[in-house]
Q: What sequence folds into this?
C-alpha cells in the first residue's frame, strides 16, 4: 500500500534555515544541507523548502541551496516561495528540485499553472493554497500570508487548479498556522474529497496526534509540519511510529 | 573504469540521477549526454524520462537518439527509469503514441473506477509517494534490497507487458501494476531510485556492477 507521507518544511532566508513563530524573531537554525540530511536520516518522505528571502537581490541564493541539498539528499525536494513564472519553475527544477510550489502567482494568473504543467509535467507542479474560514463549511483563498483576500472559494479553486494540471495541492489553514491546535480537518477533508490529486495538509500541528488526524479525519495524502520538528520536540521517526500505531501506512 | 551514459533528450532534470550514481560509484565516469556516439561508447546506459510520453518520444527523435537507444538496449547494461521504462513498450494510452517497441505491451492510465482504498476513500492520481515493490523474480539488481521495500513513485501511467515473464516487480495501487521489468541486459523501473533514499541507492549501486 502507498504510505502516507510526512514532510518537514524548512523556511530558508538568504541561504540559511531560519525558524521563528509566525515569522517573528527569525533565528538562524543552520545549514540547509545539514538540516535536510538530518530529516532524511530520521525518515522524512520528502522535504519542502520555503524561500522567505525578503530581498529580490538574494533570490538566486535558493538555487545554490537546492543544488547542494540535491547532491547529498536522495529524497524528493519541493521548493516554493516567490515562484512567479514558468522560467522560475524551470530554474528550480534544473537546480535539483523535484517539485515546485506556486502560490500567489497562480491566483494572479491561473494560466501559469497550465503553462508550467504543460512544460515540465503535472508531477512537478504543486499549487499552494492559503485558506481562511469565512463561514461554517466555507473557506476563502488568501494570499500574502493571509493578509489579502481573493474572493475565491477554496474548494472551487482547488478543483480549478487540478483541472489546469496541478499535480498536488499544499493546503494551509491560515486560521491554524502557528496555533499548535491541529489542522483544520474540515477544510482538509473538504478539499481532499473534492479533487483527484494528492493533498498535503499544513498549518497548526502541535502534536504527533495532529499529524495522524490529518490523515484519518482530514483524508490528507501527506502531512507537512515545521516547528514540531525544528524545535526538537519530536523526530520524524517518532511521528511515523505513532501514525503506524494508529493504523496508518507509513514508511519506517 | 566504467563509463555510464545518462541519455539527455531535454525532458526533465537529470542532475539527481547523475548525483545519485556518483554517490554510489565514485570511480565511474558519468556523462549526461544527447550525443549518440557517447551513448554507444558507454559501458552502461541509463534511460530516464519525465513529463508526458508523447513529448519524450518527440524529443528523443528530434535529437536523433532513437538508433543509439535501440542499439544500447540490445547489448549494454541498460536501466530505464519512469517514462524511460514506458518508452520501451509498443504503445501508450497517453497521447495514443507508439513507443520504441522493445517490449510487447501497452502503457495504461490508472483506471478511474478502480481507484478506491480499502476504507472507501479515493486513491489519488498521480500515484505519488513511497509504495512497496514486490519482487517477482530473483535478479542481481535486487541484491541487498528487501522484498516489499518502499520506493518513490510519481506517475499516472504504468506498463502492462504482454509477456508476464518479464515482470520483475509489482506494486499495488487500486490494482496490482508492473513496477519493474527485466530481460537479458535490460532492467526498467517505474519508480525513481534517485529519490528513494537507501533502497534506491542500493539499486543504482547494483546496476553499476551488474554484468548481464
A:
Amino acid at each position: 500500500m502507498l504510505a502516507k507521507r510526512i514532510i518537514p518544511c524548512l523556511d530558508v532566508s538568504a541561504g540559511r534555515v531560519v525558524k521563528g513563530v509566525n515569522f517573528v524573531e527569525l533565528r538562524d537554525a543552520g545549514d540547509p544541507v545539514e538540516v535536510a540530511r538530518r530529516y532524511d536520516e530520521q525518515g522524512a518522505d520528502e522535504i519542502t523548502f520555503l524561500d522567505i528571502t525578503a530581498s529580490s537581490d538574494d533570490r538566486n541564493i535558493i538555487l545554490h541551496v537546492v543544488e547542494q541539498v540535491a547532491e547529498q539528499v536522495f529524497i524528493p525536494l519541493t521548493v516554493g516561495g516567490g515562484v512567479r513564472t514558468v522560467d522560475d519553475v524551470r530554474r528550480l527544477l534544473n537546480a535539483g528540485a523535484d517539485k515546485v510550489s506556486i502560490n500567489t502567482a497562480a491566483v494572479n494568473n491561473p494560466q501559469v499553472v497550465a503553462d508550467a504543467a504543460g512544460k515540465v509535467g503535472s508531477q512537478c507542479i504543486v499549487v499552494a493554497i492559503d485558506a481562511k474560514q469565512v463561514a461554517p463549511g466555507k473557506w476563502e483563498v488568501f494570499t500574502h500570508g493571509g493578509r489579502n483576500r481573493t474572493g475565491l472559494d477554496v474548494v472551487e479553486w482547488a478543483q480549478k487548479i487540478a483541472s489546469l494540471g496541478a499535480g498536488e495541492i499544499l493546503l494551509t489553514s491560515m486560521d491554524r498556522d502557528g496555533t499548535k491546535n491541529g489542522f483544520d480537518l474540515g477544510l482538509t477533508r473538504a478539499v481532499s474529497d473534492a479533487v483527484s490529486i494528492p493533498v498535503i495538509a499544513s498549518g497548526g500541528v502541535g502534536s504527533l496526534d495532529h499529524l495522524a488526524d490529518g490523515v484519518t479525519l482530514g483524508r490528507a495524502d501527506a502531512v507537512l509540519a515545521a516547528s514540531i520538528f525544528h524545535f526538537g520536540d519530536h523526530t520524524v521517526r517518532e511521528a511515523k511510529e505513532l501514525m503506524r500505531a494508529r493504523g496508518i501506512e507509513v514508511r519506517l | 573504469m566504467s563509463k555510464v551514459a545518462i541519455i539527455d533528450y531535454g525532458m526533465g532534470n537529470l542532475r539527481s540521477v547523475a548525483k545519485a550514481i556518483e554517490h554510489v560509484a565514485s570511480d565511474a565516469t558519468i556523462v549526461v549526454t544527447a550525443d549518440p556516439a557517447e551513448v554507444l561508447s558507454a559501458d552502461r546506459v541509463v534511460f530516464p524520462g519525465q513529463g508526458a510520453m508523447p513529448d519524450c518520444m518527440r524529443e528523443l527523435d528530434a535529437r536523433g537518439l532513437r538508433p543509439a537507444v535501440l542499439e544500447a538496449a540490445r547489448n549494454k547494461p541498460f536501466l530505464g527509469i519512469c517514462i524511460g521504462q514506458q518508452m520501451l513498450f509498443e504503445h501508450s494510452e497517453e497521447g495514443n503514441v507508439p513507443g520504441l517497441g522493445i517490449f510487447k505491451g501497452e502503457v495504461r492510465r490508472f483506471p478511474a473506477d478502480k481507484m478506491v482504498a480499502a476504507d472507501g476513500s479515493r486513491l489519488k492520481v498521480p500515484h505519488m509517494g513511497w509504495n512497496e515493490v514486490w519482487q517477482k523474480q530473483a535478479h542481481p539488481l535486487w541484491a541487498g534490497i528487501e522484498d516489499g521495500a518502499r520506493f518513490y513513485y510519481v506517475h499516472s501511467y504504468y506498463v502492462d507487458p504482454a509477456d508476464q515473464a518479464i515482470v520483475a516487480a509489482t506494486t499495488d495501487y487500486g490494482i496490482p501494476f508492473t513496477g519493474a521489468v527485466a530481460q537479458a541486459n535490460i532492467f526498467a523501473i517505474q519508480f525513481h531510485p534517485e529519490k528513494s533514499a537507501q533502497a534506491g541507492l542500493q539499486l543504482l549501486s547494483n546496476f553499476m556492477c551488474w554484468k548481464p
About this structure: The longest strand of chain A covers residues 125-135. Residues 5-245 of chain A form a domain with the TIM Barrel fold (CATH 3.20.20.70). Chain A has a mean pLDDT of 92. Chain A touches chain B through 36 residues (CB under 8 Å).
